[in-house]
Structures are given as structure tokens and as C-alpha cells.
Design brief:
Helix content: 40-55%
Radius of gyration: 21 Å
Oligomer: single chain
Order of helices and strands: HHHHEEHHHHHHHHEEEEEEH
Strand order of the largest sheet: 3-8-4-5-6-7
Number of helices: 13
């Protein structure tokens, strides 16, 4: 029995290893420039995804949330006191600048990691939408914005910026950059469930890849997609080996946002046992936890690669059951 148990443990270890390894050659993040600099209407991809998800969840126009985020923290890129830690002179903190008392009442666990963190945009952005709705938005938008910051100048500034965001063409400002990156940043998911899955995965950009990690501070390829599905209330297997047969196989040409794309990458893998997985987000792009030496470790890249084995749709498995 001890020998059998040891063999089983070794098999499990190998499965986890292959499910976590993404490949020996880092692939460039084709959309990295647009993430670090604005891909759509002057907004980083991760923030735009979170603004739109919060808008769908709370009924607050995404451009209003984007305008607030722009003023309060330049969409998280500001290095001013209180944005990433601590508090500013007004005792506000986080990218949407919440007072601790206000956060206690309206904070949201937007990424479902069991924490309400005002410094995490995945929590702070839906919390801002929650607070604005509590104060009467969208029908009483001015009053809600005034409650957010007691200044008519602030309210006017938000509304003016929101108007510009709404009317700015959603295309890259640099024509030499791939158009699909801007489109991937503003993913059009096929349904609300897929939107939640993609929003969670996109919000993990910038976090490290760690072999065997299962979040919330670091991920490997299979744990990232598992957690993304869990954010929408869906359970899928933990490892790439188990995820591959779990979903319903679909033609590569039918790949759509929210599908899982698999690759013959990593030690001990083959065309029938893929060792790497990513989450399709549209326009030939996927988000994936790639490798510890990749920059960024979790990023957007094309799935049209020679070692792309195939695509599955886990949601069809859930529907059939």
C-alpha cells in the first residue's frame, strides 16, 4: 500500500507540474504597450474591463466610472500618496479614493478572493459603482457624484471627462500597434457569465506566475483559468490535464471569448496531452499565466501558435449536465 500511495502521489505531482508549466520560450505580450499606455479612450485594458463589468453589474455608465478613476488615480497609474497604500491628506485610499468609513459600508469583493481591498481595482471599481448607485445614480447622477466628492467643480469635471470618453473612438492612438489589442481590451463577451470570467482573468495582469500557485497573489496557467471560472460561479478542474477533457471540444475556427485554448507546451506533453492553457478573449488573443520569466508574467498574447492543439468550451459541459 505505501508503494501504491507513493506512485499515486508522483502521478498527481507530474499532472500539477505539467498543468503549471507554460513553455520554455517566453512569448511577447503583443498588447503590453496598450496596457501600460492607453489602448481605448485613454484607459488601460485592465481598468477598462473592470469599468465595463461594474457598469453591467450596477447600472452605472462605464464612462462615469472611468472619469472618476481618471481623476482619483489616473486609472491606478498615479504615484500620489494613498493610491497603492496608506492614505492621502484627506485620509482616502485606493485607485477610487475611498475613506475607510465609506469603504466599510460600500466596499465590494469584486474578484471573489474573500477580501474587500480598497487598493485593488477589482474591488474598488465595483465599490465606486455601488456607492454611486446608493446615492441615486444614474437618474440622480450629479447628486451621487457630489456625495462622492463634495465639490461642484469635481462633479463638472467627472461629467466632462465621461462625455469625452463616451465619444472618443475606441481605436489605438498609435496606428502601428495591432488593432486587435484595443479590441481585446474592450472584450465583447458572448454573455454575462463569460464577461465575469474574462474580467477576473484580465484583472490578474501584473501579478506573478508561480509554479503551483493558486492565487490570489500569484497564479499558474491552469489555476488562473480555474479561478476565472469560479468568479462566475462555475467549477472546472484544477490542472491542464484535467481541464482538456472536461470541456466540450469545438473547432478552432469557432473559438470565442471565454473558451479555453490548449497547447502542446511543457515537459511530458503531446498533441493529445496539452500542458498549457489560456483563456480566449477575442480577436485571436488570449490571456494566460505564461511563465515566471515572462514580462508580464500574466498577459495577453495570440493563441495562433504552431503548438495550439485545440479549444474547449467548459460551459457546454455544465449545460449538458
Amino acid at each position: 500500500m505505501p508503494i501504491v500511495a507513493l506512485l499515486v502521489a508522483l502521478v498527481v505531482l507530474v499532472v500539477v507540474l505539467i498543468g503549471a508549466v507554460t513553455g520554455s520560450t517566453p512569448q511577447p505580450d503583443t498588447c503590453e504597450t496598450q496596457v501600460n499606455g492607453p489602448p481605448v479612450a485613454g484607459i488601460p485594458a485592465t481598468y477598462l474591463t473592470l469599468y465595463r463589468k461594474a457598469a453591467a453589474d450596477y447600472g452605472i455608465p462605464w464612462e462615469i466610472l472611468a472619469a472618476v478613476g481618471s481623476i482619483e488615480s489616473d486609472h491606478g497609474s498615479s504615484t500620489a500618496p494613498g493610491i497603492h497604500s496608506g492614505e492621502n491628506h484627506a485620509r482616502a485610499g485606493g485607485p477610487m479614493q475611498f475613506l475607510s468609513a465609506t469603504w466599510a459600508g460600500y466596499g465590494v469583493d469584486g474578484n471573489h478572493d474573500g477580501k474587500k481591498n480598497r487598493y485593488d481595482p477589482a474591488d474598488a471599481i465595483p465599490a465606486a459603482a455601488n456607492y454611486l448607485r446608493h446615492n441615486g445614480a444614474p437618474p440622480k447622477m450629479r447628486a451621487a457624484l457630489f456625495a462622492y466628492n463634495h465639490s461642484n467643480t469635481y462633479v463638472d469635471n467627472v461629467l466632462n471627462r465621461a462625455r469625452k470618453y463616451k465619444t472618443t473612438p475606441t481605436t489605438p492612438t498609435n496606428a502601428s500597434l495591432p488593432a486587435e489589442c484595443a479590441e481585446a481590451a474592450a472584450v465583447t463577451a458572448p454573455n454575462a457569465t463569460m464577461a465575469k470570467i474574462i474580467a477576473f482573468a484580465m484583472a490578474q495582469r501584473g501579478k506573478p506566475y508561480v509554479f503551483g500557485a493558486a492565487g490570489p497573489n500569484a497564479w499558474d496557467c491552469s489555476s488562473l483559468v480555474q479561478a476565472a471560472y469560479a468568479a462566475a460561479g462555475l467549477t472546472i478542474p484544477r490542472t491542464t490535464f484535467a481541464q482538456w477533457p472536461f470541456g466540450v471540444r469545438i473547432p478552432k475556427t469557432a473559438t470565442q471569448p471565454g473558451d479555453l485554448v490548449f497547447f502542446n507546451s511543457g515537459p511530458g506533453t503531446s498533441t493529445t496531452t496539452p500542458g498549457h492553457v489560456g483563456l480566449a478573449i477575442g480577436n485571436g488573443q488570449m490571456i494566460a499565466a505564461r511563465c515566471s520569466t515572462c514580462h508580464p508574467a500574466i498577459g495577453v498574447e495570440t493563441y495562433h501558435r504552431p503548438n495550439w492543439i485545440g479549444t474547449t468550451r467548459p460551459l457546454l459541459n455544465k449545460v449538458r449536465r
